[in-house]
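Quick one, C-alpha coordinates below:
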Protein backbone atom coordinates (compact mmCIF):
# COMPACT_ATOMS: atom_id res chain seq x y z
CA UNK A 1 0.00 0.00 0.00
CA UNK A 2 2.90 2.33 0.82
CA UNK A 3 4.48 1.69 -2.60
CA UNK A 4 1.16 2.35 -4.36
CA UNK A 5 0.79 5.66 -2.51
CA UNK A 6 4.27 6.79 -3.61
CA UNK A 7 3.57 5.99 -7.27
CA UNK A 8 0.11 7.57 -7.02
CA UNK A 9 1.57 10.85 -5.80
CA UNK A 10 4.16 10.88 -8.60
CA UNK A 11 1.58 10.09 -11.27
CA UNK A 12 -0.88 12.68 -9.96
CA UNK A 13 1.76 15.37 -10.35
CA UNK A 14 2.55 14.08 -13.83
CA UNK A 15 -1.01 14.14 -15.18
CA UNK A 16 -2.43 17.18 -13.40
CA UNK A 17 -0.32 20.01 -14.83
CA UNK A 18 -1.19 23.46 -16.05
CA UNK A 19 1.63 24.01 -18.56
CA UNK A 20 4.36 22.10 -20.35
CA UNK A 21 7.98 23.11 -20.89
CA UNK A 22 9.61 21.88 -24.10
CA UNK A 23 13.33 22.00 -24.74
CA UNK A 24 16.54 20.43 -25.96
CA UNK A 25 19.74 19.42 -24.16
CA UNK A 26 23.18 19.43 -25.76
CA UNK A 27 26.89 19.58 -24.94
CA UNK A 28 29.73 21.23 -26.84
CA UNK A 29 29.50 18.59 -29.60
CA UNK A 30 25.91 17.42 -30.10
CA UNK A 31 22.51 16.88 -28.52
CA UNK A 32 22.39 14.47 -25.54
CA UNK A 33 19.91 11.69 -24.78
CA UNK A 34 19.05 10.09 -21.42
CA UNK A 35 19.59 13.27 -19.42
CA UNK A 36 17.38 13.12 -16.32
CA UNK A 37 15.12 16.17 -15.93
CA UNK A 38 13.42 16.59 -12.55
CA UNK A 39 10.91 19.22 -11.45
CA UNK A 40 12.13 19.75 -7.86
CA UNK A 41 8.77 21.20 -6.79
CA UNK A 42 6.29 18.68 -8.24
CA UNK A 43 8.84 15.79 -8.33
CA UNK A 44 7.89 15.07 -11.97
CA UNK A 45 10.68 13.36 -13.92
CA UNK A 46 11.49 12.68 -17.55
CA UNK A 47 14.55 12.16 -19.75
CA UNK A 48 15.78 13.62 -23.01
CA UNK A 49 15.20 11.42 -26.08
CA UNK A 50 17.60 10.38 -28.87
CA UNK A 51 17.39 13.89 -30.34
CA UNK A 52 18.04 15.55 -26.99
CA UNK A 53 14.48 16.91 -26.72
CA UNK A 54 12.24 16.74 -23.66
CA UNK A 55 8.85 17.84 -22.33
CA UNK A 56 7.92 18.21 -18.67
CA UNK A 57 5.02 19.71 -16.74
CA UNK A 58 5.58 22.72 -14.53
CA UNK A 59 4.57 26.21 -13.55
CA UNK A 60 6.22 29.59 -13.11
CA UNK A 61 8.68 29.48 -10.22
CA UNK A 62 9.34 25.73 -10.40
CA UNK A 63 12.97 24.61 -10.58
CA UNK A 64 14.09 22.04 -13.16
CA UNK A 65 17.22 19.99 -12.48
CA UNK A 66 19.21 18.48 -15.36
CA UNK A 67 21.48 15.66 -14.20
CA UNK A 68 23.61 12.79 -15.46
CA UNK A 69 26.65 10.96 -14.14
CA UNK A 70 28.64 12.21 -17.15
CA UNK A 71 27.70 15.91 -17.00
CA UNK A 72 27.72 18.71 -14.44
CA UNK A 73 24.33 19.22 -12.84
CA UNK A 74 22.39 22.33 -13.89
CA UNK A 75 19.17 23.95 -12.67
CA UNK A 76 16.65 26.28 -14.31
CA UNK A 77 14.00 28.39 -12.55
CA UNK A 78 10.96 28.55 -14.82
CA UNK A 79 9.69 31.95 -15.98
CA UNK A 80 6.69 32.83 -18.12
CA UNK A 81 8.58 32.92 -21.43
CA UNK A 82 9.88 29.36 -20.94
CA UNK A 83 6.37 28.05 -21.71
CA UNK A 84 6.20 29.86 -25.07
CA UNK A 85 9.55 28.89 -26.60
CA UNK A 86 11.92 25.93 -26.71
CA UNK A 87 14.30 25.89 -23.74
CA UNK A 88 17.93 25.24 -24.71
CA UNK A 89 20.20 23.72 -22.06
CA UNK A 90 23.95 23.26 -22.50
CA UNK A 91 25.66 20.81 -20.12
CA UNK A 92 29.38 20.57 -19.39
CA UNK A 93 31.05 17.15 -19.40
CA UNK A 94 32.62 15.82 -16.22
CA UNK A 95 36.20 14.68 -16.68
CA UNK A 96 38.33 12.76 -14.18
CA UNK A 97 38.29 15.56 -11.64
CA UNK A 98 38.65 14.30 -8.08
CA UNK A 99 36.68 17.27 -6.74
CA UNK A 100 33.64 16.26 -8.81
CA UNK A 101 33.80 12.48 -8.90
CA UNK A 102 33.14 10.61 -5.68
CA UNK A 103 35.36 7.55 -5.46
CA UNK A 104 34.34 4.61 -3.34
CA UNK A 105 37.21 2.61 -1.86
CA UNK A 106 36.80 -1.10 -2.72
CA UNK A 107 35.99 -3.30 0.22
CA UNK A 108 38.99 -5.06 1.76
CA UNK A 109 38.76 -7.97 4.14
CA UNK A 110 39.64 -6.74 7.63
CA UNK A 111 42.10 -8.90 9.57
CA UNK A 112 43.27 -8.40 13.13
CA UNK A 113 46.35 -6.25 13.71
CA UNK A 114 49.42 -8.53 13.96
CA UNK A 115 51.06 -6.70 16.88
CA UNK A 116 47.83 -6.66 18.86
CA UNK A 117 47.30 -10.39 18.30
CA UNK A 118 50.89 -11.21 19.29
CA UNK A 119 50.66 -9.15 22.49
CA UNK A 120 47.36 -10.74 23.50
CA UNK A 121 48.69 -14.19 22.64
CA UNK A 122 51.80 -13.73 24.76
CA UNK A 123 49.81 -12.52 27.76
CA UNK A 124 47.29 -15.33 27.39
CA UNK A 125 50.00 -18.00 27.21
CA UNK A 126 51.83 -16.61 30.26
CA UNK A 127 48.59 -16.43 32.24
CA UNK A 128 47.69 -19.98 31.25
CA UNK A 129 51.16 -21.29 32.17
CA UNK A 130 50.79 -19.63 35.57
CA UNK A 131 47.34 -21.11 36.20
CA UNK A 132 47.90 -24.55 34.62
CA UNK A 133 51.61 -25.45 34.84
CA UNK A 134 50.81 -29.18 34.67
CA UNK A 135 49.56 -28.76 31.10
CA UNK A 136 52.90 -27.54 29.84
CA UNK A 137 55.22 -30.22 31.17
CA UNK A 138 55.28 -33.91 31.91
CA UNK A 139 57.61 -33.00 34.78
CA UNK A 140 56.10 -31.67 38.04
CA UNK A 141 59.15 -29.43 38.37
CA UNK A 142 58.82 -25.68 37.77
CA UNK A 143 60.37 -24.46 34.55
CA UNK A 144 59.84 -27.67 32.59
CA UNK A 145 57.77 -26.31 29.68
CA UNK A 146 56.53 -28.72 27.01
CA UNK A 147 57.15 -26.83 23.72
CA UNK A 148 54.82 -29.13 21.74
CA UNK A 149 51.90 -28.28 24.01
CA UNK A 150 52.71 -24.56 23.72
CA UNK A 151 52.58 -24.77 19.91
CA UNK A 152 49.30 -26.66 20.21
CA UNK A 153 47.84 -23.78 22.21
CA UNK A 154 49.10 -21.23 19.68
CA UNK A 155 47.54 -23.19 16.83
CA UNK A 156 44.16 -23.15 18.59
CA UNK A 157 44.38 -19.42 19.27
CA UNK A 158 45.04 -18.72 15.57
CA UNK A 159 42.46 -21.24 14.36
CA UNK A 160 39.83 -18.59 13.54
CA UNK A 161 42.18 -15.63 12.94
CA UNK A 162 41.69 -15.48 9.17
CA UNK A 163 38.00 -16.35 9.16
CA UNK A 164 36.25 -14.79 6.14
CA UNK A 165 34.23 -11.64 6.83
CA UNK A 166 31.47 -11.04 4.25
CA UNK A 167 31.43 -7.60 2.58
CA UNK A 168 28.95 -5.04 3.96
CA UNK A 169 25.56 -4.34 2.35
CA UNK A 170 25.74 -1.36 -0.04
CA UNK A 171 22.36 -0.21 -1.32
CA UNK A 172 21.89 0.24 -5.08
CA UNK A 173 21.23 3.84 -6.17
CA UNK A 174 19.53 5.53 -9.12
CA UNK A 175 22.97 6.60 -10.36
CA UNK A 176 24.08 2.93 -10.30
CA UNK A 177 21.22 2.06 -12.66
CA UNK A 178 22.03 5.01 -14.92
CA UNK A 179 25.59 3.71 -15.26
CA UNK A 180 24.31 0.17 -15.88
CA UNK A 181 22.06 1.33 -18.73
CA UNK A 182 24.97 3.17 -20.34
CA UNK A 183 27.44 0.26 -20.16
CA UNK A 184 25.30 -2.89 -20.43
CA UNK A 185 24.25 -4.54 -23.69
CA UNK A 186 21.33 -6.29 -21.98
CA UNK A 187 19.91 -3.47 -19.86
CA UNK A 188 18.90 -0.58 -22.11
CA UNK A 189 15.87 1.49 -23.15
CA UNK A 190 14.84 -1.11 -25.73
CA UNK A 191 14.71 -3.78 -23.01
CA UNK A 192 12.45 -1.61 -20.85
CA UNK A 193 10.11 -0.52 -23.64
CA UNK A 194 9.89 -3.67 -25.78
CA UNK A 195 10.38 -6.45 -23.23
CA UNK A 196 8.92 -4.99 -20.03
CA UNK A 197 6.33 -2.75 -21.78
CA UNK A 198 7.37 0.31 -19.75
CA UNK A 199 6.14 3.49 -21.43
CA UNK A 200 9.12 5.59 -22.54
CA UNK A 201 8.01 8.66 -20.58
CA UNK A 202 7.87 6.56 -17.40
CA UNK A 203 11.38 5.06 -17.62
CA UNK A 204 12.99 7.43 -15.04
CA UNK A 205 10.03 6.88 -12.71
CA UNK A 206 10.33 3.09 -13.11
CA UNK A 207 14.04 3.17 -12.24
CA UNK A 208 13.20 5.18 -9.11
CA UNK A 209 10.58 2.53 -8.29
CA UNK A 210 13.17 -0.25 -8.63
CA UNK A 211 15.78 1.32 -6.33
CA UNK A 212 13.17 2.02 -3.63
CA UNK A 213 13.24 -1.74 -2.95
CA UNK A 214 16.65 -1.47 -1.21
CA UNK A 215 18.54 -3.78 -3.57
CA UNK A 216 22.12 -4.83 -2.89
CA UNK A 217 24.57 -3.17 -5.28
CA UNK A 218 26.37 -6.50 -5.77
CA UNK A 219 23.49 -7.38 -8.13
CA UNK A 220 25.25 -5.12 -10.65
CA UNK A 221 28.10 -7.63 -10.96
CA UNK A 222 28.31 -9.49 -14.28
CA UNK A 223 27.73 -12.94 -12.72
CA UNK A 224 24.48 -11.72 -11.12
CA UNK A 225 23.09 -10.32 -14.39
CA UNK A 226 20.26 -12.87 -14.73
CA UNK A 227 19.27 -12.47 -11.09
CA UNK A 228 18.90 -8.72 -11.64
CA UNK A 229 17.03 -9.39 -14.89
CA UNK A 230 14.44 -11.46 -12.99
CA UNK A 231 13.98 -8.62 -10.48
CA UNK A 232 13.40 -6.12 -13.33
CA UNK A 233 10.76 -8.41 -14.86
CA UNK A 234 8.93 -8.75 -11.51
CA UNK A 235 9.09 -5.03 -10.73
CA UNK A 236 8.00 -4.20 -14.29
CA UNK A 237 4.81 -6.23 -13.89
CA UNK A 238 4.00 -4.51 -10.58
CA UNK A 239 4.77 -1.03 -11.95
CA UNK A 240 2.64 -1.51 -15.08
CA UNK A 241 -0.27 -2.72 -12.94
CA UNK A 242 -0.05 0.39 -10.75
CA UNK A 243 0.09 2.70 -13.79
CA UNK A 244 -2.85 0.92 -15.46
CA UNK A 245 -4.95 1.13 -12.28
CA UNK A 246 -4.15 4.81 -11.94
CA UNK A 247 -5.10 5.60 -15.55
CA UNK A 248 -8.34 3.67 -15.16
CA UNK A 249 -9.15 5.63 -12.01
CA UNK A 250 -8.49 8.92 -13.82
CA UNK A 251 -10.80 7.94 -16.70
CA UNK A 252 -13.59 7.03 -14.28
CA UNK A 253 -13.27 10.42 -12.59
CA UNK A 254 -13.59 12.18 -15.94
Amino acid sequence: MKTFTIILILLTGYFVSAQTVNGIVYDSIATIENIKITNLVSKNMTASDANGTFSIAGKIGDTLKFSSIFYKEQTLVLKAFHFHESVVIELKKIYNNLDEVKLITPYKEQLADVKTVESKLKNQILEDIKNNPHLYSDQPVAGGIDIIQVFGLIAKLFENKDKYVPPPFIEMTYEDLETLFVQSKLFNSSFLVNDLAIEKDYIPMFLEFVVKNELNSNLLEKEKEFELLEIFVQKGQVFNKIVADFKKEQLNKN
